[in-house]
Fold this sequence. Notes:
Elements: E1 7-11, H1 15-27, E2 38-43, H2 45-55, E3 62-66, H3 82-88, E4 90-94, E5 97-103, E6 108-113, E7 116-121, E8 127-133, E9 136-150, H4 158-161, E10 173-183, E11 190-193, E12 197-203, E13 210-214, E14 217-219, E15 222-229, E16 235-239, H5 245-252
Parallel strand pairs: 1-2, 2-3, 3-16
Antiparallel strand pairs: 4-16, 5-6, 5-15, 7-9, 7-13, 8-9, 8-12, 9-10, 10-11, 12-15, 13-14
Amino acid sequence: MSGFSKIAIVASEAPAAKAALDDLRGRYKTVPAEQADLIVALGGDGFMLETLHRYRERGVPFYGMHRGSVGFLMNGYGPNGLEERVARAQPVAIHPLAMTTADRAGTTHAAIAINEVSLVRQGRQAAKLKITVDETVRLDELMADGVLVATPVGSTAYNLSAHGPIIPLSADVLALTPISAFRPRRWRGALLPHEATVRFDVLEIERRPVSAAADFTEIRDVASVSVREASEISITMLFDPEHNLEERVLKEQFLS
Length: 256
C-alpha cells in the first residue's frame, strides 16, 4: 500500500470506530498489528495515545482517523483512497517523556509519556513540592494542586487546561506548568530546554501525599519524580497535508 505492504487497522470501542473498522477491513487487505509496517488507528486522541503506547516498540508509523471524541491527533475520516492518503501524508517525529519515580517505600518505577507527566495531590491538602532543573533548585517550595511537564504534542491537552503555553512542535522546549498554584500564587510556570531534566521532591510526604502519572500510568505515594525527554525514542505519526499538525498547533494559539 503505497510503500506499506502490510497494514493493520485498529479501533476503539466507540460505535463509530467499530463501524469504520468493519467498512475498511472490507475494502482493504489487512494484517495483525504485530505484523504490520503501518498501523491505522480509528477513534479519538485517547485511543491514539493507547495505540502509540501499545505498539511504539515496533517502530512503525501511525496514521489516525477521527472516529471518537477529541481528534487533535487524528486525520479526518474517509473510507476511500486510503492508499493515496497514506502516500502523501507528512511524517511527524515525536519524542516522549521518560518518568522515573521513587515511592515512599523506596520502590522505583519507570514509565513513558507522550503528552505529559503530572503530579497531583492525593488528599484534601495541597501538595508541597521542591523543583530542581538540571541539578539547580529553581523553587524551594511550590504549594499547589499539582504540576506537570508537557511535550509540544501534549501542550494542547492537560497543559492547556491548566493555563500552560501552547508549544510549536519545532520549538524544542518543554512546558513546566503548575496546577492551581497557591504559593507562589503568581507563578505561571516555565519553558525549559527540551534536553533539561526536571526533578520533583515531595515535601511533607505523610501529610500531603502525591501521585504521579505518565499518560495512563499512575504511581501513588511518590517521594520523588524525575522527568526528561526520551530523545532515544522516536515515534512517527502521519498527517494529511491539509491536516498538518504543526499548523493546527499554531492555530490553537489564536483561538479565543
